[in-house]
């Protein structure tokens, strides 16, 4: 460190005379441009023998698939595209992951109907793998020639094996044709027979599949048409069941076109029980089939005994063509999931407007669970009917108890920005919001997730995350991020989440004109060196429709919008007791230019590497240094709740950067004051120097970099032409100053020489905004390395027509002293964050599919914890527990009076069991790294305290 | 898990610095000045209250009575701190009487010690007013007599003859003499537990003595060894004060106050707030300046109560006027305010409303409690089932909050505007902007429902705070209702007023900018000189 200080001193000494002799600068300028010769392409990295590790991907979004409970409700199965995760419902923790083949992705999964330890997982390449999830072993692989979209398992009557029903898409010359396919999984023969039961005639894909009553009735639907396959009269022996042709012939298929866009579907089979029904049951069949579906407009359609009605209609031509559903219109937006309750008295539906509705069918009475903060994606009723698993659009799954609707389990994944490159198959209604999109370019959907590593707890990432991300809504702009998620990157677990700004959690998320409201977007997030203070910048602009009354011509709308930008700089204190960040100071419009009302954005926020101080710069061309100050009222210290001095943050220094010369008509008396379009700050590693540079839309003189004394805020030195334009980020690493712009340059600030520079070859089609959104620089002081990430496209499609799905990012790690990269790595999709891990030598690479990897040197001890890697951590325990569970379940299958009594007893005891919420448990165990945990007996006491408390009524 | 409904966050108005500091407020609370003239308008030289004693003795002596001892030249007045009435007075009869200089009542209230102009130190029984003891050792006037803070029979005195002496009540002569000051010793005090003495003299020094060491003799020109510490100041020392704890000493020399750290042996601060010589010092928990009509010779702060709160501020002046300002305790203040409220309510004929409010404050069941009926289960009830608990909390939010939540935007704005709460109106307007609902809230109104909004705009549009929000609201009103101008007289009037107000504001802004321009010209000029 002393060396750095010396360098800083030296730089300062060098600097002072040079400012006074501009000639010297001009001479230097020449040398700089000469040095451009050095700027070459990034050399290839030998892929083998690298001294860095790339961890396997972790995180990821949960698939938009109904969660699946284990039979005993002890485990919940959730899938990301990488594999199926087994979570324990008791403590919300990951137990095991059933990984898919690295080149393959999971599309659907279903629990076996004959063996509750088995789960079928379908993959996009077409394989169905049967796993024993209790041991984590693969049991069987069933190949398929077509891609599988949905899997349902049923045990066909009079057979002893699973039959897999799938929706598969066959690629033909005329496009994709969907099939409903059935397979018998014959254990003894160890072979499966594949039978296409039904070939879909329409172009739009089949989306939903529901198999009822041991395969007797199959409901399937696309967005526009419903198909019902039923086996009315076939009574063969079991050998016949195996015969593919006979099995296929069992079904009579009836199509029913829908006038609305179906977005979800559920069906159930119930035995007829009323006297009248029983009398007629011979004629009608013993079961009645109820169907419910939801549409994109927000209505649910309920059909009771639909099969019978269809049959009736066929027999009696006089009857009306329509089946006359019961329509329940409540949801404001598309119904994303609808389910029958186990007793079929209720229909539970969840909508995109974040409300869960329980409709009692007999009375028509509704019970709402509003303010879920995030759109509901899917819902599952547990096998015993005691809880609902709700999958929300913030990438979390919650298990609610059915009686009091209290959460029992909460499993949030990483909630960072997620951009899906595959369009959603679900039908959409065009909304005002989607019609008045600001941008037509789907590449604009990629954004940055402001992220920082907490130095106080080096495992934790602090991410600014959106409230809800619904990839079925087609908007080409990243979702605003008003929340802070603390995520443990090493265990892959969510820690906490809190609001950083005003949000729409409890208010209607649409305006009176039915436009979607937008929350403020947190654009920057930084943490102080001691981890006790967090600083955030948030922005909110009113939508164009709200300001158009102020202007005569439409082209002025944008500037009026900018004029009304709300920008806050917030300082948060870590509160140990409540375990959250507490707002201490809010600064409104910290960088409002006095001359230009439109120039008010904050461009950069950096934290001092040693002290508790922050620096910001913005569109007013001013650098401000922020320091905490004990609040004084009337000369006396204002005390907080615990007698500590209340602290407020204030601007201790403000330094004006160079004025940008006015462009345009020079003859005007008052030319419009130009504002910079980009500005960046960086502290040197010892915090003695603050570097600032800004750029305007007209590159009048690119690359002017200012060096300030960070303590006094005085300008020490200005250096022109350090970069050429397209500024992205700057940073210090010891004596090296790194600039990422249109090219990468590494300067030695002591000798004032360019060490090396590289051209980045960013695809030309990207706009500067898109380039900025997808390019990153991160510095790691402890390993003396830095990483850059830039967007790339596949070489073949360079500069040609390519879509967002062809984009990816290249992460390259350098040592600032040597021009050859240490490692280069291509991500699957563009990055949304590149975070340096303070204290350890490594980087977290977070991409637009919400997956992250940790890049770290081989000698470093850090690696993803075994839980993330799916090591069989708790095999024995799980197995035993589950075995016991299995026995119980088997018992359930045997009807018997005494058994029933026992079962009641068990239920009673279960009821008395205290509901221990996972966060309570996490509160005990999750207090930082293991060495910082309290003594074991204290942990034990607190756990016993949680579970052992007498149940209260 | 559903998010909890919380009330809307209010907009924040920038805080201007308060006109009064906390200290100013504190001293302003010393109200109800009582002015007591002394006999013959003799200057009041010394005020000492026995209750002000900071130190509790080890032997539990409960004061039989406490007094404020006021020394005028010919008379000692003993006032009761409770009633502020004169209880006793000691007057020297006869012609050879020399003026009294300092009187202090012992902390048990029994004996008063004083020094006279003729160099005597006398002790009186406060009850019988009989002289108990008289010492004639000092050769020149005695200006300071103080009781030992711990020892009931010890005392000290300082005299113009340059000596400091310690006395023992039963003995005939002084027990200790301190020589060293070269000039009049006009102030002195015991430090801490009374083991040390600090004195200030006109020779511009403050000396700290240790009486356990021999104080030297009158011949010794060299400073005695008993002086353990000596501070040199720039002017004669008029007053000296030991702060509680005994580690810090405050001395007044000329118009300056020096704060001395006795542990480190160095000055801490120097304060210079007075224009003229400081004559007296007292300890209080706040600082302030109060103006008096004639030179202040003496002052004391009388404390009362178990917390030793400052109660009376006694100031004696040259003109012989004793001013006593009294600060009311909080409970008294509250009771007085409540009484005032009740009276105003009575005057305005709203006493029923007032009573109802009082009733609410008391809560339900208090009558039963007073009556002592059987069905009152008492405050320590085991279980109280509060069925309305959740609902009550909801009620607390502002009415417009509820309307906003029900998406009744127009109603919310009406409620806010009618409440007259400016912050509330701004809060609702901000919320409406955030929900893209300002237009909806303002549209579909007639002249009657638009009136309060325009009235509010006319009243506040000239205020700079939240001007963009107000301007937008006004613009939107014009956008929506401009075509209706000319249909309603009242509406037209309001629009005209709005127009005038805006024009006026623009003119103000323009002249401000003009001024700014001029100043920047001057600044530019100044810059070129540099």
From TrEMBL, chain A:
Predominant cellular place of this UniProt entry's protein: nucleus
Ranges where the record places region Disordered: 1-21, 883-903
GO molecular function ontology, one term from the record: RNA binding
InterPro entries: Quinoprotein_ADH-like_sf, WD40/YVTN_repeat-like_dom_sf, WD40_rpt, WDR75
Biased composition (Basic and acidic residues): 1-12
Keyword NAD (UniProt): no
GO BP, sorted A to Z: positive regulation of rRNA processing; positive regulation of transcription by RNA polymerase I; rRNA processing
Keyword Nucleus assigned: yes
SUPFAM superfamilies listed in its UniProt record: Quinoprotein alcohol dehydrogenase-like, Tricorn protease domain 2
Cellular compartments annotated: Nucleus, Nucleolus
GO cellular component, one term: small-subunit processome
Alphabetical UniProt keywords: Nucleus, Repeat, Ribosome biogenesis, rRNA processing, Transcription, WD repeat
Bias (Acidic residues): 883-893
Protein's name in the database: WD40 repeat-like protein
Organism encoding this protein: Tothia fuscella
From TrEMBL, chain B:
Lineage top rank: taxon: Eukaryota
WD repeats: 135-177, 178-210
Pfam families listed in its UniProt record: UTP15_C (PF09384), WD40 (PF00400)
GO annotation terms (biological process): positive regulation of transcription by RNA polymerase I; rRNA processing
Location(s) in or outside the cell: Nucleus, Nucleolus
Main location: nucleus
Name of the protein in question: WD40 repeat-like protein
Sequence ranges assigned to domain U3 small nucleolar RNA-associated protein 15 C-terminal in this UniProt record: 375-522
Organism: Tothia fuscella
Coiled coil region boundaries: none
Keywords: Nucleus, Repeat, rRNA processing, WD repeat
GO cellular component, one term: nucleolus
């Amino acid at each position: 460190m002393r060396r750095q200080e010396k360098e800083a001193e030296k730089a300062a000494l060098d600097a002072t005379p040079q400012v006074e002799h501009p000639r010297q600068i001009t001479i230097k300028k020449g040398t700089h441009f000469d040095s451009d010769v050095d700027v070459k392409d990034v050399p290839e990295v030998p892929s083998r023998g690298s001294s860095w590790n790339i961890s396997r991907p972790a995180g990821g979004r949960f698939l938009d698939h109904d969660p699946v409970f284990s039979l005993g409700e002890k485990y919940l199965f959730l899938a990301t595209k990488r594999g199926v995760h087994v979570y324990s419902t008791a403590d919300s923790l990951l137990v095991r992951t059933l990984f898919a083949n690295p080149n393959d992705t999971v599309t659907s999964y279903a629990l076996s109907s004959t063996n509750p330890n088995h789960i079928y997982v379908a993959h996009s390449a077409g394989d169905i793998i049967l796993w024993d999830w209790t041991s984590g072993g693969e049991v069987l692989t069933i190949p398929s020639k077509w891609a599988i979209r949905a899997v349902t398992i049923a045990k066909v009557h009079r057979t002893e094996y699973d039959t897999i029903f799938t929706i598969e898409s066959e690629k033909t010359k005329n496009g994709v044709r969907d099939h409903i396919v059935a397979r018998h999984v014959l254990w003894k023969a160890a072979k499966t027979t594949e039978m296409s039961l039904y070939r879909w005639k329409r172009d739009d894909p089949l989306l939903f599949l529901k198999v009822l009553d041991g395969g007797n009735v199959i409901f399937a639907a696309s967005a526009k048409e419903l198909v019902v396959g039923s086996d009315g009269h076939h009574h063969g022996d079991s050998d016949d069941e195996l015969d593919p042709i006979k099995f296929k012939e069992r079904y009579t298929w009836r199509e029913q076109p829908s006038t609305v866009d179906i977005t979800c579907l559920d069906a159930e089979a119930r035995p007829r029980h009323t006297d009248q029904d029983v009398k007629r049951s011979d004629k009608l069949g013993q079961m009645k089939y109820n169907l419910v579906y939801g549409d994109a407009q927000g209505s649910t359609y309920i059909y009771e005994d639909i099969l019978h009605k269809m049959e009736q209609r066929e027999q009696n031509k006089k009857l009306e063509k329509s089946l006359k559903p019961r329509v329940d219109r409540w949801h404001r937006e598309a119904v994303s999931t609808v389910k029958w309750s186990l007793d079929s008295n209720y229909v539970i539906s969840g909508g995109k407007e974040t409300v869960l509705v329980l409709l009692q069918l007999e009375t028509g009475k509704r019970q709402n669970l509003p303010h879920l903060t995030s759109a509901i994606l899917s819902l599952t009723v547990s096998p015993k009917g005691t809880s609902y698993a709700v999958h929300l659009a913030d990438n979390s799954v919650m298990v609610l108890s059915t009686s009091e609707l209290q959460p029992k389990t909460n499993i949030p994944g990483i909630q960072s920005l997620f951009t899906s490159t595959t369009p959603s198959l679900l039908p959409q209604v065009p909304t005002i919001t989607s019609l008045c999109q600001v941008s037509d370019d789907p590449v604009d959907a990629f954004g940055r997730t402001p992220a920082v590593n907490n130095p106080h707890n080096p495992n934790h990432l602090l991410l600014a995350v959106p409230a809800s991300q619904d990839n079925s809504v087609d908007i080409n702009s990243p979702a605003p991020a008003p929340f802070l998620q603390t995520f443990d990157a090493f265990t892959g677990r969510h820690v906490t989440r809190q609001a950083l700004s005003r949000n729409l959690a409890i208010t209607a998320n649409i305006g009176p004109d039915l436009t979607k409201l937008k929350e403020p977007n947190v654009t920057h997030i930084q943490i102080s060196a001691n981890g006790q203070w967090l600083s955030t910048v948030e922005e909110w602009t009113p939508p164009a429709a709200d300001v158009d009354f102020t202007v005569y011509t439409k082209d002025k709308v944008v500037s009026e919008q900018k004029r009304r930008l709300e920008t806050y700089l917030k300082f948060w204190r870590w509160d140990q007791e409540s375990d959250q960040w507490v707002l201490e100071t809010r600064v409104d419009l910290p960088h409002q230019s006095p001359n230009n009302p439109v120039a008010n954005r904050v461009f950069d926020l950096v934290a001092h590497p040693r002290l508790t101080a922050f620096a910001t710069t913005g569109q007013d061309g001013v650098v401000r240094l922020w320091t905490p100050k004990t609040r004084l009222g009337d000369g006396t210290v204002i005390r907080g709740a615990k007698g500590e001095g209340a602290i407020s943050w204030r601007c201790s220094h403000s330094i004006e950067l160079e004025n940008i010369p006015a462009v345009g008509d020079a003859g005007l008396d008052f030319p419009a004051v130009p504002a910079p379009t980009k500005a960046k700050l960086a502290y040197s590693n010892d915090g003695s120097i603050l570097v600032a540079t800004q750029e305007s839309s007209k590159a009048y003189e690119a690359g002017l970099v200012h060096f300030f004394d960070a303590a006094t805020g005085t300008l020490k030195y200005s250096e022109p032409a350090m970069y050429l334009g397209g500024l992205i980020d700057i940073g210090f690493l010891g004596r090296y100053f790194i600039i990422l712009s249109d090219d990468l340059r590494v300067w030695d600030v002591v000798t004032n020489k360019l060490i090396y520079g590289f051209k980045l070859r960013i695809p030309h089609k990207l706009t500067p905004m898109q380039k900025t959104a997808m390019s990153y620089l991160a510095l790691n002081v402890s390993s003396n390395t830095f990483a850059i990430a830039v967007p790339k496209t596949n070489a073949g499609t360079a500069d040609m027509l390519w879509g967002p799905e062809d984009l990816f990012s290249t992460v390259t790690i350098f040592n600032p002293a040597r021009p050859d990269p240490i490692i280069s790595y291509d991500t699957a999709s563009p990055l949304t964050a590149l975070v340096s891990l303070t204290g350890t030598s490594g980087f977290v690479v977070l991409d637009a599919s919400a997956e992250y990897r940790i890049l770290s040197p081989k000698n470093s001890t850090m690696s993803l914890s075994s839980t993330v890697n799916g090591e069989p951590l708790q095999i024995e325990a799980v197995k035993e527990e589950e075995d016991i569970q299995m026995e119980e379940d088997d018992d359930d299958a045997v009807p018997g009076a005494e058994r029933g009594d026992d079962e009641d007893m068990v239920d009673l005891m279960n009821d008395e069991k205290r509901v221990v919420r996972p966060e309570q448990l996490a509160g005990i165990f999750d207090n930082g790294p293991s060495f910082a945990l309290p003594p074991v007996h204290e942990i034990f006491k607190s756990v016993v305290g949680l579970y052992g408390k007498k149940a209260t009524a | 898990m559903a998010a909890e409904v919380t009330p809307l966050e209010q907009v924040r108005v920038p805080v201007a610095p308060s006109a009064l500091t906390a200290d100013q407020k504190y001293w302003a609370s010393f109200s109800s000045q009582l002015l007591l003239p002394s006999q013959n308008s003799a200057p009041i030289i010394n005020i000492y209250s026995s209750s002000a004693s900071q130190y509790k003795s080890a032997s539990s002596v409960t004061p039989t009575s406490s007094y404020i001892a006021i020394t005028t030249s010919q008379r000692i007045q003993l006032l009761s701190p409770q009633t502020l009435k004169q209880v006793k007075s000691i007057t020297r009869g006869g012609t050879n009487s020399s003026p009294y200089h300092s009187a202090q009542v012992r902390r048990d209230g029994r004996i008063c010690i004083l020094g006279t102009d003729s160099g005597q130190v006398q002790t009186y029984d406060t009850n019988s007013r009989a002289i108990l003891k008289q010492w004639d050792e000092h050769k020149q006037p005695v200006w300071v007599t103080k009781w030992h803070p711990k020892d009931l029979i010890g005392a000290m005195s300082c005299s113009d003859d340059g000596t400091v002496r310690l006395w023992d009540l039963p003995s005939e002569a002084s027990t200790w003499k301190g020589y060293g000051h070269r000039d009049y010793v006009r102030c002195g005090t015991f430090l801490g537990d009374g083991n040390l003495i600090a004195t200030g003299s006109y020779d511009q020094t403050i000396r700290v003595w240790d009486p356990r060491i021999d104080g030297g003799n009158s011949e010794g020109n060299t400073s005695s060894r008993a002086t353990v510490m000596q501070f040199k100041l720039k002017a004669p020392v008029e007053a000296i004060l030991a702060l509680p704890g005994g580690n810090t000493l405050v001395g007044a020399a000329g118009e300056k106050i020096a704060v001395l750290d006795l542990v480190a042996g160095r000055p801490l601060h120097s304060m210079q707030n007075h224009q003229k010589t400081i004559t007296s010092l007292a300890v209080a928990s706040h600082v302030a300046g109060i103006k008096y009509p004639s030179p202040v010779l003496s002052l004391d702060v009388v404390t009362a109560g178990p917390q030793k709160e400052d109660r009376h501020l006694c100031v004696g002046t040259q003109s012989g006027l004793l001013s006593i300002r009294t600060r009311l305790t909080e409970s008294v203040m509250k009771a007085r305010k409540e009484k005032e409220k009740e009276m105003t309510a009575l005057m305005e004929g709203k006493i029923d409303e007032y009573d109802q409010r009082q009733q609410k404050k008391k809560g339900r069941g208090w009558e039963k409690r007073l009556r002592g009926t059987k069905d009152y289960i008492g405050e320590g009830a085991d279980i109280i089932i509060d069925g309305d608990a959740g609902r009550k909390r909801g009620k607390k939010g502002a009415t417009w909050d509820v309307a906003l939540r029900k998406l009744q935007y127009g109603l919310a704005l009406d409620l806010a505007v009618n409440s007259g709460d400016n912050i509330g109106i701004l809060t609702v307007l901000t919320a409406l902007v955030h929900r893209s609902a300002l237009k909806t809230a303002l549209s579909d109104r007639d002249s009657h429902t638009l009136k309060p909004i325009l009235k509010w705009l006319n009243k506040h549009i000239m205020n700079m705070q939240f001007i963009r929000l107000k301007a937008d609201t006004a613009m939107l009103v014009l956008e929506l209702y401009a075509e209706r101008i000319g249909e309603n007289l009242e509406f037209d009037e309001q629009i005209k007023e709005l127009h005038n107000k805006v024009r006026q504001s623009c003119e103000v802004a323009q002249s401000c900018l003009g001024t700014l321009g001029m100043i920047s010209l001057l600044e530019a000029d100044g810059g070129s000189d540099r």
